[in-house]
Amino acid sequence: MAGCLDFTVMRIDGHYDPIADVAWLRFEGYDPRTVLAEQVEFGLREIDPSDRRIVGLEYWRASETLPQDLLRMLPAPPLGVAG
User: Could you give the CA distance from residue 25 to residue 59 in angstroms, rounded to a whole number?
Assistant: First the structure.
């Protein structure tokens, strides 16, 4: 069974701000100059306008919706940077 699995490596960038309780996940192809943000029930979904791929997710109230193990793995955002 394991021999049939096909894995693709993807770069993921992320941050978690425990004071704001917001987690940001950015995937390959994320470009802040062109991304389109759509508000959804958990926060924002960020779309590449050229092919409508999801390239970013922003979770509001992250401590209520994401596993604590994931939040502990994410670094704090750089000082002076939000999102």
Answer: 8
Residue 16 burial class via C-beta count within 10 angstroms: exposed 0-12, middle 13-18, buried 19 and up: buried
23 close to 16: Cβ distance less than 8 angstroms:
yes
pTM above 0.90, yes or no: no
Q: Render pLDDT for 8-64 as a digit per residue (tens, 0 to 9).
A: 777 889 999 999 999 999 999 899 999 999 999 999 999 999 999 999 999 999 999
β-bridge partners, 43: 40, 59
Our measurement of the distance from residue 16's CA atom to the centroid of its chain's CA atoms, rounded to an integer in Å, reads 10
Q: Which residues have a Cβ under 8 Å from the Cβ of 54 and sit 6 or more positions away?
A: 27, 45, 46, 47
